[in-house]
Design a protein that fits this description.
Elements lengths: L14 E6 L9 E7 L19 H9 L9 E4 L6 H9 L4 E5 L8 H6 L15 E5 L6 E6 L3 E6 L6 E8 L14 E6 H21 L7 H4 L1 H28 L8 H13 L61 H17 L10 E2 L5 E2 L9 E2 L2 E2 L5 E2 L1 E2 L1 H7 L8 E5 L2 E5 L1 H8 L3 E4 L9 E4 L7
Parallel strand pairs: 3-4
Antiparallel strand pairs: 1-2, 4-7, 5-6, 6-7, 8-9, 10-15, 11-14, 12-13, 16-17, 18-19
């Protein structure tokens, strides 16, 4: 979030200034919202034409309240904005009534205003609900100190120094036990204090009702911009709902308006339908939990984008004729694969050459189909076999790399009365260039292989 033409990010925090309606059918409707840009905020970092010194809050309210000047509005303010200068400018120049909490020693009260509730000679005490009023001798400004649970100080430019008898309901606190009473009691208060409390009560009540449906973000993870953007979105949503309820009551008095939750759901659906489509998904069943290794496509009825990082798995038997049944390959769980890798690495420490061994390892007596594409079992005799030869051997290294038992033939078969050697293990690794065979020495019938790569290309 940057403020002004120069890049000035809000590094540590942000202050959101808002103006909202508190009375009428559009109560809590946000009229203005702005993020304070910090010490060097260029919009308010200047002298206002109605002030002698640089009073930033007067400059801020100058353009915040510009549409409402000279119309007799009343503005209730927080102590961060309230000052003698603000009240005078608001009354004399903008014709706006202002009241709000303020700091100590306003209206020329000076040390007397502070000594009235501090020190040895204090006139009022906490929980006494007594008031001390000061009125400016030249300006129509009234400064009031009220002894509630703490000393509450308010300043107004349109109230007289009047105390309302039983003007507010408060739970008194016992001076000895310091415990609050269970029931409310009528207490005296300055009239400007009652106006302030009644207005901010409506603001807090409206904000609490809106907060149930706010979209929030974690500022520690995403920073301030997403958090502020979500806050602005929540304000716009609340404003739209206030207008909807007002118009609904005007034109459809006998019908009940929709709840804000339903309105937000409809708005979310409408917003998500806008813009270009990201991808098109076909109708059908959800993706299967197991991958079909007989085909190069997922087969779950949904297309995969060409730029997706999760492309379909290419099976070693991908060149087999379409529709040929194949024994499913059971994937190894992550836990079992981890234990196998630990055991295999332990063996490699004692046998450094134990990588894609030329002789496979016997792991089961049940046997599974060979996964080599060119296994001789696919073409035996005059007709094609429905599947490859059954093997009880696997390659340890390929199993670790692929995540499932990789079965390969290493046996002899009798075909047409002739016994032949079926060594798919050696043929597969030679084809994948994991190692290459060396010619046997003269007078011998053995074959030696040299490892040239630890990884397969699939």
């Amino acid at each position: 979030m940057t403020i002004g033409p120069e890049p000035k990010p809000i590094r540590t925090g942000a202050t959101l200034h808002t103006v909202c309606v508190t009375k009428g059918p559009l109560s809590t409707y946000k009229l203005f919202a702005r993020v304070y840009g910090g010490r060097y905020d260029e919009d308010i970092d200047k002298h206002n034409k109605h002030t002698v010194t640089k009073l930033k809050m007067v400059s801020l309210y100058d353009f915040m309240l510009d549409p409402f000047k000279h119309n007799g509005h009343c503005v209730v303010m927080d102590s961060a904005y309230m000052s003698d200068a603000m009240c005078q400018v608001g009354r004399e120049e903008w014709k706006i009534n202002m009241v709000g909490t303020c700091q100590t020693d306003r209206c020329g009260a000076g040390p007397l205003g502070k000594a009235a509730y501090t020190g040895k000679n204090k006139q009022i005490a906490i929980n006494s609900h007594e008031s001390l009023l000061f009125q400016h001798k030249d300006k129509p400004l009234t400064y009031a100190v009220w002894g509630d649970n703490n000393f509450v100080k308010t300043l107004s430019n349109f109230h007289s120094p009047v105390i309302l008898r039983g003007g507010m309901q408060r739970k008194r606190r016992d001076p000895k036990t310091k415990k609050r009473e269970r029931d409310f009691s009528a207490v005296d208060c300055p009239i400007q204090q009652k106006i302030y409390c009644c207005t901010y009560h409506l603001i807090d009540k409206g904000n609490g009702a809106e907060a149930k449906y706010d979209i929030s973000t974690e500022s520690h993870l995403h920073g301030w911009p997403p958090k502020l953007a979500a806050r602005f979105f929540n304000m716009n949503t609340n404003n739209a709902y206030k207008v909807y309820v007002c118009l609904h009551k005007k034109y459809h008095r006998r019908r009940k308006p929709m709840e804000i939750r339903d309105c937000i759901n409809n708005l979310t659906h409408s917003l998500l339908q806008q813009g270009l489509e990201i991808r098109q998904r076909g109708v059908g069943a959800p993706p299967s939990a197991t991958k079909n290794l007989d085909s190069t496509t997922s087969g779950d009825g949904r297309s995969v984008r060409s730029d997706s990082s999760r492309q379909p798995f290419a099976s070693p038997s991908g060149s087999v004729q379409t529709g040929t049944p194949q024994t499913p390959v059971a994937a190894i769980t992550a836990r079992a694969l981890h234990y196998r890798q630990v055991a295999f690495n332990r063996l490699k420490n004692f046998q450094p050459g134990r990588n894609h061994l030329s002789v496979p390892v016997v792991v089961s007596n049940s046997g599974r189909d060979c996964l080599y594409v060119n296994c001789p079992g696919w073409k035996t005799g005059k007709a094609q076999r429905p599947r490859a030869y059954t093997s009880k051997y696997i390659c340890e290294q390929c199993t670790m790399e692929k995540g499932f038992d990789f079965w390969l033939c290493h046996t002899t078969k009798v075909i047409d009365g002739v016994k032949i050697v079926v060594d798919c293990h050696l043929a597969y690794h030679v084809e994948k260039k994991c190692f290459y065979p060396t010619p046997p020495p003269a007078g011998t019938s053995t074959t030696e292989c040299s490892v040239i790569s630890d990884l397969t290309d699939e």
